[in-house]
Design brief:
Mean pLDDT is 91; it is low at 1-6. A 5-stranded mixed sheet has the order 2-1-3-4-5, sandwiched between helices. The protein has one domain: Beta-carbonic Anhydrase, Chain A (3-Layer(aba) Sandwich). Helices cover 49% and strands 15% of the residues. By secondary structure, the protein is of the alpha/beta class. Helix 5 (117-126) packs across helix 6 (140-154). Reversible hydration of carbon dioxide. Catalyzes the reversible hydration of carbon dioxide to form bicarbonate. It is an enzyme of class 4 (lyase). Its cofactor is Zn(2+).
């Protein structure tokens, strides 16, 4: 078997296993049956010298949506990056590239969420309820999330839920477009991308793409 065929099959197998485990953990969380795995002293000490996470997660900084809790994961399981509105900047991109190149993660998850404040703010500004000359609107947060709002409106989609889903898709596209490291890893099959949205009302993660 050629090396690239091996990498593709091995990467996909690892990604499938990691995502299945994360979804199982989310089901436990949503059903109030969380096990809080791998949070004991033995695990902590085993990770002192190195880490080998299966997945990298880019999610919103919102205090209500911590990935490790939502997916019922433990120490060393997830390489987590959080920004308001899961916005991508240079630091985020290079952090994800580090996860791919050095930690060899097989899965990158971009997770938005219900009632996202960044989405609500961008929608409010673009609707004319706020001054578009406000400094906040010119920030990376408003530029990036605002672009997703405009795309949704151009497609006749006007609810916050629509924008939240579109913003996840746009963020995934940005990762592949802006990073040769991520793009090449995805094309070779070494890394899989997942789009997801956390629903606060029932605690479940909605799978948008895999």
């Amino acid at each position: 078997m050629a090396q690239n065929e091996y990498d593709e099959q091995n990467g996909r197998t690892r990604a499938d296993a990691a995502w299945s485990r994360m979804l199982a953990g989310n089901r436990r969380f949503a059903e109030s049956k969380a096990e809080h795995p791998w949070q004991d002293r033995e695990t902590r000490e085993s990770l002192i010298d190195e880490q080998t996470p299966d997945a990298a997660v880019l999610s919103c900084s919102d205090s209500r949506v911590p990935p490790e809790i939502i997916f019922d994961e433990g120490l060393g399981d997830l390489f987590t990056i959080r920004t308001a509105g899961e916005v991508v900047d240079e630091a985020v991109l290079e952090s994800l590239e580090y996860a791919v190149q050095h930690l060899r993660v097989s899965l990158i998850v971009v997770m938005g969420h219900q009632n996202c404040g960044a989405v609500a703010a961008a929608m409010k500004v673009l609707s004319g309820d706020e001054n578009t000359e406000d400094e906040g609107f010119r920030s990376i947060l408003m530029r990036e999330v605002g672009a997703s709002v405009r795309l949704a409106l151009d497609s006749d989609l006007d609810t916050a839920e629509d924008v939240e889903r579109i913003h996840v898709a746009q963020t995934l596209e940005a990762l592949v477009t802006d990073s040769a490291v991520i793009r090449n890893a995805v094309h070779s099959g070494e890394v899989s991308l997942v789009g997801a949205r956390y629903k606060m009302d029932d605690g479940k993660v909605e799978v948008l793409s895999f």
